[in-house]
Amino acid sequence: MNKLKFSTLGRNTFLISFLSGTLLLVSYLITGADFLVISGFYFVIIAVVVNIFILLYELLEFLTNIPDRKSSGNSVLLLLVNIPVTILYICILFNFEL
After folding, report:
1. Alpha-carbon distance 72 to 90, whole Å?
2. Which letter, b or e, does each residue of 1-34 get, where b requires 16 or more Cβ atoms within 10 Å of its Cβ?
3. Are 78 and 6 a contacting pair, CB within 8 Å?
4. Using CA atoms, how far apart are residues 65 and 53, in angstroms rounded to an integer?
5. This prediction's pTM
6. pLDDT band at 65; cut points 50, 70, 90
7. What is the spatial distance between Cα 75 and Cα 16, in angstroms, rounded to a whole number?
8. At residue 98, does pLDDT exceed 70?
9. Alpha-carbon span 55 to 75, nearest angstrom
10. d(CA 73, CA 55)
């Protein structure tokens, strides 16, 4: 079975975004500190901007770099996973607040 290949930039961007968001959510659920909600809001805005730029870069690499096409395409899909994860975390936050 072949191992999935990802570009280093795409994989690291995904991991940093995912783990930071998860850490913020879990910290808020444990402590209930309001500043974590505000920090999380700013984090989501910054993460969206950064992820869009990296996603566009990886998509451009996918379309132009034929030999390394597979890793760039996989990285695009990996970065797109952050969208439903973010929506899920926001739903959890809103349900926790009610």
Report:
1. 28
2. eeeeebbeebbebbeebbeebeebbeebeeeeee
3. yes
4. 18
5. 0.87
6. confident
7. 14
8. no
9. 8
10. 10
